[in-house]
Design a protein that fits this description.
Elements: E1 5-11, E2 16-22, E3 27-33, H1 38-41, H2 43-61, E4 68-75, H3 81-92, E5 99-104, H4 105-114, E6 119-124, E7 128-133, E8 139-143, H5 146-149, H6 155-170, H7 179-187, H8 192-199, H9 206-210, H10 213-221, H11 225-249, E9 256-261, H12 263-267, H13 269-278, E10 283-287, H14 292-308
Parallel strand pairs: 1-4, 4-5, 6-9, 9-10
Antiparallel strand pairs: 1-2, 2-3, 6-7, 7-8
Helix pairs in contact: 2-3, 4-14, 6-10, 6-11, 7-8, 10-11, 11-13
Length: 309
């Protein structure tokens, strides 16, 4: 007997997670593949990735693709109207009969943390963004402008600052710091030339720079003053993203619940604690304890409930 099902997708710049659920929201299967950011892949490869995910998750869940009712996607890099137009065009080209719901990755993370209720999600991994839905259902965001124009407090920002301030210390323009030595050990290079070669190599991605954030956190824990300043500044920048969403979103009920997600917030406890301290009179900060893809399924299931009401 055929059974209708829902698919949720969390598509990022490095990996994509897809899950299948039945019409009650019960999880049926999960698969993980490479990136699904169309800015990284291009639209043709993006569409091919989605097709591969549909086939893989249907096989894993034992479902028929023709019985797929709703595909709910949370995609990095889908924040503007033109992005959404291009994505819907690519999805339509797949020839699937299901309904598509397209959100950015912050929206599904919020749904994973708080369901469909109002609140804010703060994401800090390679990049950074705060995204909220107020009591009136209005959406507001702060940050998420990419590593050149924004991403303050992100892993990339922390890693870049560590490299820049370490080199300034070498030039005598900055306080003494162990950052360069620790970064050399991490990269397994023997001198500063090795660091420069790493930074400007064509294969060095934003993610590789962001990975240095853990090195900075370890140096800060060991008492390095420069590293501690970088970590403190990251926490302040991330708290400022949340404050901007609270103010611009006109949240009338405070404290606002803020769920946090991403490598920086998951792996550097000091930053999460410091953000909670800064926002103590405005927000309650909690860690997201579900995968964001579960938020994509939550949004898809909510659509099913509305259709059947």
């Amino acid at each position: 007997m055929n059974m209708k099902w829902i698919m949720g997708i969390d598509g990022g710049g490095t990996k994509t997670v897809a899950c299948a659920a039945d019409m009650t929201g019960r999880l049926l299967g999960r698969v993980e593949q490479g990136p699904a950011n169309y800015h990284v892949l291009g639209l043709e490869k993006f569409a091919r990735r989605i097709r591969e995910l549909v086939e893989a998750v249907a096989l894993t869940a034992g479902m028929k693709i023709s019985d797929l009712v709703i595909m709910s996607l949370g995609l990095a890099g889908v924040d503007r109207g033109r992005d959404r137009e291009l994505i819907f065009s690519a999805l339509t080209s797949l020839g699937l009969s299901c309904q598509f719901i397209v959100n950015n990755d912050a929206r599904i993370a919020l749904a994973a943390g708080l369901g469909t209720k109002e609140g804010i999600v703060l994401i800090a991994g390679t990049g950074s963004i705060a995204y909220g839905v107020n009591e009136r259902g209005e959406q507001v965001r702060s940050g998420g402008w990419g590593h050149i124009l924004g991403d303050s407090g992100s892993g990339y920002d922390i890693g870049r600052q560590a490299l820049a301030r370490g080199l300034k210390a070498l030039d005598g323009q900055e306080k003494a710091t162990v950052l360069l030595n620790r970064i050399m050990n991490y990269l397994q290079v023997t001198d500063v030339d090795g660091i420069i070669g790493f930074v400007y190599h064509c294969d060095t991605s934003k993610e590789k720079i962001a990975a240095l954030a853990v090195v900075v956190a370890e140096a800060a824990d060991a008492g390095d003053v420069v590293a501690r300043e970088i970590i403190e500044e990251a926490a302040a920048e991330l708290a400022a993203l949340v404050e901007a969403v609270i103010v611009r979103g006109g949240f009338t009920v405070q404290p606002v619940t803020v769920c946090t997600y991403g490598g920086v917030l998951n792996n550097i406890p000091f930053i999460r604690r410091r953000i909670a301290e800064i926002l103590a009179d405005k927000a309650v900060v909690i860690a997201l304890d579900k995968e964001p893809v579960m938020g994509a399924l939550e949004i898809g299931h909510a659509m099913v409930v509305r259709r059947e009401a």
